[in-house]
Amino acid sequence: MKIFGKVQVAGAVALLMAAFALPAGAAETTIEISVKDNKFQPSEMKAPADTPIVFKIKNLDGAPVEFESEPLQFETVIKPNMEGVVKVKAQKPGRYEFFDDFHQGNKGTLIIE
């Protein structure tokens, strides 16, 4: 009976884990949103269920935007004429609202299908 060293066992375990792991970022959905004249463009978008989401937000206005969603659990400020990124964990099907906390009339909806 042959005994394997700790390094060999650790290497074998790492190879097995790598074989069953998903490639990094492979199942990610990217959504691009602009803010212009205190309005999200688009104000409604769709994404697949059970997939992590990356929002890329461009603030084209001259005032900061507080991009926020309670159900999606994020809040970030994007300075005027700047861009921001928000990563959200995978969600179940449904409608998820987001808004600009600095401009309460600016609202949008993410539909998870």
Task: Give a written overview of the molecule.
Keywords: Signal. This is EfeO-type cupredoxin-like domain-containing protein. Pfam families: Cupredoxin_1 (PF13473). This protein is mostly beta strands and 113 residues long. The protein has one domain: Cupredoxins -  blue copper proteins (Immunoglobulin-like, Sandwich), CATH 2.60.40.420. It contains 1 helix and 9 strands; from the N terminus they run αβββββββββ. It has a 5-stranded mixed β-sheet, with no helix packed on it. A 4-stranded mixed β-sheet has the order 2-1-4-7, with no helix packed on it. A hairpin with a 2-residue loop joins β8 and β9. The longest helix has 15 residues. The radius of gyration is 20 Å and the shape is globular. It starts with 5 loop residues before the first helix and ends with a strand.
Q: Outline of this structure?
A:
This protein has one helix spanning 6-20; strands spanning 29-36, 39-41, 44-47, 53-59, 65-69, 74-78, 83-88, 94-100, 103-112. By secondary structure, the chain is mainly beta.
Order of helices and strands: HEEEEEEEEE
CATH architectural name: Sandwich
- The percentage helix is 10-25%
**Share of β-strand residues:** over 45%
> What do we call the CATH homologous superfamily?
Cupredoxins -  blue copper proteins
The main β sheet shows up as: 5 strands, mixed
Count the DSSP helices. Answer: 1
Shape: globular
CATH class type: Mainly Beta
Question: What is the count of structural domains?
Answer: 1
Cα-to-Cα separation, first versus last residue:
54 Å
Radius of gyration: 20 Å
Strand order of the largest sheet: 3-9-8-5-6
Find the CATH topology. Answer: Immunoglobulin-like
